[in-house]
Batch of 4 targets.
Target 1
Amino acid sequence: MESQKNIVRLENIHKIYKTGEIEYHILKGINLTVRSGEFISIMGPSGSGKSTLMNIIGLLDRPNAGKVYIDGIDVAKLKDSEIAKIRNRKIGFVFQQFNLIQRLTVYENIELPLLIRDISKEEREKLVREALLRAGGDLGWLKKKPNQLSGGQQQRVAIARALVGKPKLILADEPTGNLDRDSGRIVMETLKELNKAGETIILVTHDIEVGNCAQKIYYIKNGEIVGSGETDQNKCILNSKR
């Protein structure tokens, strides 16, 4: 069954950085499986290894030891060019800083992941419009520059860019970190709706009310997953009274 398919499988992941003679063991034997259609959050204090873990899942970095499988593919056996292709086709990224290119229009920003694929202009336009609507955006934004939009609107454009290539997985790294509370609610409502429609989402956050919007939380500390559990939807930012 598709719903039972593993989209991400990490086996005994270690990551070590060296600075001169000093070694920093950032990840220490991480094991994690995320199935199709799941929505999980990863929480932990600053320096716990959250961002490093996200970079390894997103194929932006390689572990020193352990196995990474994305949609059943063992990426350790692949060349950098093959990894880049998987990253483009199977993973969509949403960042805290939006990472939109200010000199491009909203349309051009969303279209970017499609430009290295063999897709007609007409098909690209269709996919861009569909993605923006799915992300809760307005087609009236397409000709605008990002700086003409609010922070919450820019993040929905970033979500549309993540969706446009129809990836297997969406990685959201502190997607509400630069937003006020009301804008953060809108972004989390968008991610919840996308998950209900079948999208697989991994969210990194320091905000427990954001983390509780997922189905399950994994807690990371000093490079190790120290616990996990079901979320409390009553304490999700969408349901919180605060």
Note: Residues 2-235 form a domain with the Rossmann fold fold (CATH 3.40.50.300).
Target 2
Amino acid sequence: MKAIVIDQYGEKEVLKERNIEKPTIQDDQVLLEIHATSINPIDWKVRAGYLKEMLPFEFPIILGWDAAGIIVEKGKNVSRFEVGDRVFARPATTRQGTYAEYTAVDENLLSQVPVSMSFEEAASIPLAGLTAWQCLVDITGIKKGDKVLIHAGAGGVGIFAIQIAKSFGAYVATTASEKNEVFLKSLGADQVVNYQQDDFSEFLQDYDIVLDSIGGDVQSTSYKVLKKGGKLVSIAQPPSEEEAQQYSVDARFHWLEPKGEQLQHLADMYESNELKTIIGETFEFSEQGLQEAHALSETHHARGKIVIKVK
């Protein structure tokens, strides 16, 4: 099968096209013929070597942790899915990723793709959508009436976090550039703070929840907008215990745990028109296509999700 691999850490040019063997599946897995995948910051962070201590993979590495496609083979213990099913998943974090024509996926990580959803839309949801869901629902326990600040609302996680928060009846503020204000309000944001001109902490007070996807000074400043007992969850960097104690805030770092049943929640929200996905750019499945997609993701200014059309 065709795959895009890396044999060393480095810039986007280390992404190389290669023909390799199809993966073999275990009894509780399916072999998924991938029709689309998507780009997430973890992809280029692994490629650049930033996560080599956390994820000590052996080379060659196939990056990519979003998949949508059709089941072409299933293990003997797989009972909830059949060959021919349209499914999507955030597969387990291994060195056998989704920049490939086929990948092996554990049954418990799969969800059916809604009939009305394209493979490209499906591939754009799992990692970013599950991250947003777990941060807001599992970690902070979002509820109706909460005031929630979501940083980088136009990014991959942000677009889903805004919609999930609104589905729970929260008031949602987000930070973004001026050009994205109308777009983010169309997703449900109640207030958009232009981070290029304004200090969000001067406009927002007494918030219950902050979802931080930026870290650094933005994370530190975020404590100022939270009420005592408020919650900050970061996917950028572990929060400072000292800062959290200073502001009497519950602050945590979250690393995604793939879960098929939660992905089904997102699929149900899509079908009930509570959730839509925004595909900013689509690239072809090639060495050049993946290199261009990584370059765009690394700018931190892509709107919505970056998708790779595999088949």
Note: The chain has a mean pLDDT of 97.
Target 3
Amino acid sequence: MITVLTATYNRAYTLARLYESLERQTNKQFEWVVVDDGSTDNSKALLDGFQQTATFPMRVVEQRNSGKHVAINTGVALAGREWIFLVDSDDALPPDAIEMFLSDVKDSTRENSVGYCYRKADLAGNMVGNVITAPRLAEPVSPTEAAALYQGDLAYIFRREAMLKHPFPTFEGEKFVPELLIWNRLSDEGSIQYFDHKIIYLCEYLEDGYSANFAQNLRRNPRGFGVYYKHQIGREKSLTRKVKCLVRYVQCRVFGVLKGRKS
């Protein structure tokens, strides 16, 4: 039913936590596909050891360091299950994560579901983002609106067939494209079911992660961010947000020119 897909780069010091959380799953009807994005630490030896002891199907593929978005494309192509659960190598899953998802899929009456969206918590169990207390009249229709509503990272599980139709774009010399670009495109394919209070994912924000280095990543990957902000202008509903995306897009164009001159 489900592939847990992990793109990793020099995360040998956190991979064991994720592996152990997968071993603790109350339902083992999943496979773990790991794409090693050119790690230079001892990730390979560690992953080889996990494959020897794993109580669930596990596959590891190595690629030249190209960025998380390329690693996701690689993993989706290799996945052998209907659903893709993207889990970062520095995070973990609560013991009932897989069981929760499979139960929700079984109970769903939707015929055009392209994805499921759950909440994340920190390693101490505190929910990330807004706690929704009042019933919502309608679900967000896109990940853009979900981001505005929840104000925190979300855990998405998408149908593999849809992800194959919408791979991340790649740009020579760049190693990052915002995930929301693709999540929005996937939402155009069908509905996403949102769960306000179900925590399916435990996360940790590291100092060398993308979230902590936004400005630097923007300068290094102007075309990847540029295509995102260009499309996002039309996605946003408020004028303020549209203007902010336009400003970011102009920044990306400027950074792209400057980067081209340096090369």
Note: The chain has two domains: 2-203, 211-262.
Target 4
Amino acid sequence: MAFRDVLNIEVAAGNGGDGSMSFHRAKFMEKGGPDGGHGGKGGNIILRAIEGVESLERLVGRRKFKAPNGNYGEGRLRQGADGEDIYIDVPVGTTAFDEDTGKVIADLVRVGQEKVVARGGLGGRGNSTFTSSTRQAPRFAELGTPGQKRRVRLELRLIADVGLVGYPNAGKSSLLAALSRANPAIADYPFTTLSPILGVVDRIDSRGEPLDERFTLADIPGIIEGASEGKGLGLEFLRHISRTRVLVYVLDVTRDPVEELRQLQAELQAYDPTLLENVALIALNKVELVDADLAAMVEDELAQYGLPVLKVSAKEGEGLSELREITFQMLPDRELWAQDRALEVESENVVAEPLRVVFRLDPPAQGVGIVSSGAPERVWEIHGGGFEERIVRFSRYLEDAAEYLGNLFKRQGLYNALKKAGAREGDTVEIGTFRFEYFNDEDEQD
């Protein structure tokens, strides 16, 4: 199966079912009470991380996912069934972005982790909910809300404990093969590695026996100058390297390793400055090709970067035991790392929507606002606070629900906000397509 690490999909959660406007009917009971049941909730679209899948290729051919709607409520207080949730199984390491906003909406770094990427609509309440001492026969019910629709970009960012960072031909593939059980293609030309390759590295005791500790090591396509701008395989490289808990800069001692390290870090900085905060070390490779004095001099020059420097030869096996052991010692705890990642994503997506009251003296002409005697009336247009969403839920019964909505908005502080903004008795209040007259009544009603 071909390796695919980017995929665009469309998701649509189910709509909530409408609440029922119903009155009990039975023999010898001509006028029974309200008995409308609630509508069911719409199904969610949920991403789920599973193991055993290493590519998004399995989803190709299906780009649209739609969850079932919730059923309508019925009389006799019967509630509509909820729509079934739809699960989309993706590889561990998948990040989901909202294509319209660019925000991360899911970051799945553990097997079994789930995230709702499109939330089902809420079911509407039946008219039985709206009875009170003064409203004993409500002739309105609440409509269900639409399910969320999104265009989602899925990016697979390889989950590996350790990532090898280096320019083409720095010896990353050879190092992976020497340290692990992987068998990557190895040759003397750039971009031998076109897709990420994973290997497993076991910890070895003093007798050369494997211990019950291991980490995954990723050989990712070599970086080139301009990678952060998408040149070469740059973005593919950087997307995957951002997942690793430890970075190993693989430098070729026969080239200019100090300058290569500077350029590598510059590309990481341009793509995501937090990458330079990762735990990191330097593997100075191909030391078998130079004399010991030159290798020691280069080691001293690299020390200015404040990272551990290990002289290794992937070809001859020199320094590999020390590299393996130091990498094990430097690995951050996996669970704590995953928790930190989840907290970062949650904090990035907390958005508060304040109530905003806007005075509009000259409303648009297309039926929005009220005009009398050739002059525009004072119209107060309301945005935010969830008021418009509430209006929509009663759009089929607005005339019958007007009193209920007016009292509800007053209890939620809308009238006080209007009064403070300067509204006067008789002014028009506009919420979406719903318009009503403002009155200054200090007595609260049900």
Note: The chain has three domains: 6-156, 162-345, 356-437.
